[in-house]
Design brief:
The complex is a heterodimer of chains A (261) and B (357). With 261 residues, chain A is an alpha/beta fold. Chain A has 8 helices and 12 strands. Chain A has a single domain, classed as P-loop containing nucleotide triphosphate hydrolases (Rossmann fold), CATH 3.40.50.300. In chain A, strands 6-9-10-3-11-12 form a 6-stranded mixed sheet, with helices on both faces. A 4-stranded antiparallel sheet of chain A has the order 2-1-4-5, covered by helices on one side. The chains are: A alpha/beta (261), B mainly alpha (357).
């Protein structure tokens, strides 16, 4: 396998009882690449993400991250390996402020011999938070206010800023703008562009065709639990209508024809 | 880094911009209550121009009425120690009802290892064990008491975190069990006559010293350690805490253990202060401890509240109790008034939260 492959899956499969939510997904992405995953509801997008991020255990198949075969027993494993995920439901603690949320579960500390009573390095965490937010261009009036009083967009940005703070090796966003307004969506999209400029690989699950065409290099379409197209949209060969026809099943990518139904 | 630092796009953190801390409201309420009693002392016809907090007019040897100040804090100190633990439990969105009976059970157990052998030259008439348990160093009753508290807390925490029993039910069961243990330990007889060194740890203002020292320690722990941060995180969003890699179950067990050890320590001190241990001790202590935390601005939904708030909440209860005695109102009125204040505190909290949302 070549060294510039960030993520590779081979025959990734997930069955929920008799439901074949994901079947034989072969996926590959290169260094610095931004890939969108599209598909109808129930096509297997989120299932695919959950297998990669260790939220669920796959039924079959293999996953490689930067050339190493990985087998995550939970989301923490995946995070430690460098996969940072922004979930549809935000995993933020409302009563804590921005640095507290960014560093939750992996606080900067000193006097570690104190065990659970080791001391928090507030200053270091604040500094790293500022750096992370600046890197992503996120604007938050005061990072020491609790998350409770922030808008949906700001909260989403905080969740996304985690990736910038921790130098993730792969960022996955599961419909990051689904619940956001126009301005907030633009803010999140700006962060995605920044990640692109910095060469950080990203998987974006999205329903928003305009957004996908604006942001990513490649679209992978899922249908009925299978990958049915792999479209290099930067080449200009494909339009939104093409992608829609792959999503609805009017078309299927040549290399995926054997399973088409 | 300067006080205020600016990133791109007005990204700041500014100490002066931080929101008005909730503790200031409680401090304000405390001052208002004191002022009300001060005014009542002046206007009530039977009070003869007395002062609540300041020295009476006939003596000019000091500014404050020190005796009253001491009593205000002394009468809430022991329950205050319990409240420090209850605060942590409520911040995780839990509750601990077992602390009052735990105080009694621990007082009985600790005192039975803190008795003196000879009382005025005669054998201790309330001796529970033989001479082997007499005149032990004071560390023994303290250690036995804390160990018992840790044991009870571990059971509470395990049932709540691992077996998913609602905290209210689990600690209600433990409430009855501890009261049972307190009665069973000596067959209902009081245990009395502690050693001089055991008497000393709860004598005079010692309960206040313990209360305030422990308050400072736990304030620092809740604010500046990982333990504190994770306690708030769990109460704020348990799912997020779990996803962030916090071992939520283990942490909860630790919180309940610390809370029960604080309640047990309160029992050790109460027995020392009273120089006796009786199975009926600590009645309603669990409720007053919860009341202190609630008046101190804690949210029963978890995630919010502080040790400073609880200490102020304890002071409010102390001032009200003293104030009612001062204006010569009956104990029955005190209970009604304290009940009303607890309800008012909750109503205020709900109102503030709705306004914020």
């Amino acid at each position: 396998m070549s060294d510039d492959i960030v993520l590779k899956t081979e025959d990734l499969t997930k069955h929920y009882g008799g439901v074949h939510a994901l079947q034989n997904a072969n996926f590959e992405m290169k260094m610095g690449e931004h890939v969108a995953i599209m598909g109808d509801n129930g096509a297997g997008k989120s299932t695919f993400v959950r297998q990669i991020t260790g939220v669920e255990q796959r039924t079959a198949g293999k996953v490689w991250l930067y050339g190493d075969e990985v087998n995550f027993s939970g989301p923490l494993d995946a995070r430690e390996a460098g996969i940072e995920t922004v979930f549809q439901t935000l995993a933020l603690a409302d009563d804590l402020d921005v640095p507290d949320n960014l560093f939750l579960g992996r606080e900067k500390t000193y006097a570690d011999w104190l065990g659970p009573f080791r001391l928090l390095d507030y200053k270091g965490m604040r500094r790293a938070t500022m750096a992370g937010l600046e890197k992503t261009g996120v604007k938050i009036p005061n990072i020491r206010n609790s998350i409770r009083n922030m808008s949906g967009g700001q909260r989403q940005c905080v969740a996304i800023a985690r990736t910038a703070t921790f130098h993730s090796r792969l960022t996955i966003m599961d419909e990051p703008t689904a619940a956001l307004g126009v301005q907030e969506t633009a803010q999140v999209e700006n962060i995605v562009r920044q990640l692109k400029e910095q060469g950080e690989p990203l998987i974006l699950v999205s329903h928003n065709m305009r957004q996908v065409f604006d942001l990513v290099d490649r679209v992978v379409v899922f249908r009925r639990g299978r990958i049915c197209a792999n479209l290099d949209i930067k080449s200009g060969d494909y339009t939104g209508e093409d992608v829609v026809s792959y999503i609805t099943g009017a078309k299927t990518g040549e290399e995926y024809m054997e399973h088409a139904t | 880094m300067s006080e205020t630092s600016h990133g791109i796009g007005g990204l700041t953190f500014d100490k002066s911009k931080r929101s008005w801390p909730n503790e200031m409201n409680i401090l304000l309420a405390l001052i208002i209550i004191v002022v009300i009693f001060e005014i009542l002392g002046q206007v009530l016809p039977y009070m003869k121009d007395q002062s609540f907090l300041f020295d009476s007019r006939d003596r000019f040897d000091s500014i404050f009425n020190e005796a009253r100040l001491k009593i205000i804090i002394l009468q809430v100190a022991i329950i205050g120690i319990i409240a420090l633990g209850v605060t942590q439990v409520i911040i995780t969105a839990g509750i601990d009802l077992s602390s009052g009976p735990l105080v009694a059970a621990t007082a009985m157990i600790a005192m039975s290892f803190g008795q003196t052998e000879l009382v005025n030259g005669f054998a201790n008439p309330k001796a529970l064990f033989g001479t082997w348990a007499m005149d032990l160093p004071v560390l023994i009753p303290i250690a036995v008491g804390l160990a018992f508290g840790a044991f009870i807390g571990a059971i509470n925490g395990t049932f709540i975190a691992y077996l998913r029993i609602p905290p209210f039910i689990a600690t209600l069961g433990m409430f009855l069990i501890c009261r049972g243990i307190a009665l069973w330990w000596s067959g209902g007889n009081p245990i009395s006559f502690p050693t001089e060194s055991y008497k000393a740890i709860g004598a005079g203002m010692m309960p206040v010293v313990w209360f305030l020292s422990l308050a400072v320690i736990f304030h620092l722990i809740m604010r500046y350690t990982v333990y504190g941060k994770h306690t708030y995180a769990i109460g704020s969003n348990e799912e997020a805490a779990r996803m962030s890699g916090i071992n939520v179950k283990r942490h909860k067990v630790m919180v309940y253990m610390i809370a029960s050890m604080l309640a047990a320590f309160a029992g050790v001190i109460l027995a020392s202060k009273s120089e006796t241990a009786q199975a009926g001790m600590g009645e309603f202590y669990e409720l007053f401890a919860i009341a202190m935390a609630v008046i101190g601005g804690i949210s029963l939904q978890g995630g919010r509240g502080s040790i400073v708030g609880t200490v102020l909440g304890a002071m409010v209860l102390g001032v009200i109790r003293s104030g009612f005695t001062y204006i010569k109102l009956d104990g029955s009125y005190q209970l009604m008034a304290m009940g009303s204040i607890i309800i008012a505190a909750i109503v205020l909290d709900q109102y503030r939260q709705r306004n914020k949302a």
